[in-house]
Amino acid sequence: MTSLGSDDEAMTRWVEPPPAHTTTWTGIRDPVVLILVLAGIFDWLSGNPIHSILLFAAAASLLWVALRGTPEEADRPASDRLERADRRSRRGLVPVAVVAAALFSIVVGAFGRYSWPATIAVLVPGAFALWFAWRHAAPFAPGVDFAAEPQKLASRGVLAWIGLFVALGLFELANLLLQPSFKTDSYIHPTLSVMTDPILASHAGRSVVLFVWLALGWFLVER
Amino acid sequence: MTSRYVTLALYGMFALVALALEVRSRRSRSSIPSLSTVFTRIMRTRSGRVGVMAGWVWLGLHFFAR
């Protein structure tokens, strides 16, 4: 029997999940659930039922897991424990992914905005990404000591980013409320989506934005 | 200066602040983490990952879908 190196020891260390009642309470008061529900309500009021159903479904799924009170992914198969190493090996796929994303963007960019083909084309990678995020979330996964790494972030620095995004969200909300109605754009108080309308009016603009959207998704999945 | 330009200027200010935070995070011993580091931390939990990815899917739907 060979002895384990320090990395191997870290990979095989078991991180004890918290008690079930703690997990439940933490899940119920999870700000992510609240944010998703609030965003879903405003999207519903704006006349976008499909979008709000997505947000409500994500919130309901997280709440359901929290109410079950089971530790997340505690019994994941051993192959999943090497997820981080897999990420490095996946970097070889980047050129293929870039070409595929470019082709996707060019083809889907040809579809009209708010058309069913465009809707389905966005929903497919979106559903896959959500499944991937759900499947590969591993706060209590055996073999990975999430409590020990990475370095602790300075709360002041994190607050700076949170403050920026909250302020931007409130400003966007203010502009939305200053529109004549939720479904009528305002020239004086444009929201971000109103400002992107001229770009998204052309095939080339839609293709570029789709490519950036896919790149952002890749960046997030790689976190 | 019209209200529209004030609105646009404020959006620009948000972008500049984000850029400044990111540049500041690159300095050694900075107390401000990079945006990538913040997302990496957020996505260490299932709710964080699902929440962030739901936001990403929502962006695509918002700009392109019905």
Task: Please provide a written account of the structure.
The complex is a heterodimer of chains A (223) and B (66). With 223 residues, chain A is mainly alpha-helical. Chain A is 65% helix and 0% strand. Chain A contains ten helices and no strands. Chain A is globular, with a radius of gyration of 21 Å. Residues 1-15, 73-82 and 138-146 of chain A have low confidence and may be disordered. With 66 residues, chain B is an all-alpha fold. Chain B has one domain. Chain B is 76% helix and 0% strand. Chain B starts with a helix and ends with a helix. Chains A and B meet through helix 3, helix 4, helix 7, helix 8 and helix 9 of A and helix 1, helix 2 and helix 3 of B.
List the helices and strands of chain B in order: HHH
Fraction of helical residues of chain A? 55-70%
Instruction: Briefly note the structural class of the backbone of chain A.
Output: mainly alpha
Low-confidence parts of chain A: 1-15, 73-82, 138-146
Mean pLDDT of chain A: 77
Q: What order do the SSEs of chain A take from the amino end to the carboxyl end, as H and E? A: HHHHHHHHHH
Report the biggest beta sheet of chain B as strand number plus sense, adding barrel if it closes: none
Overall helicity of chain B: over 70%
Spans of chain B of 5+ residues with little confidence (pLDDT < 50)? none
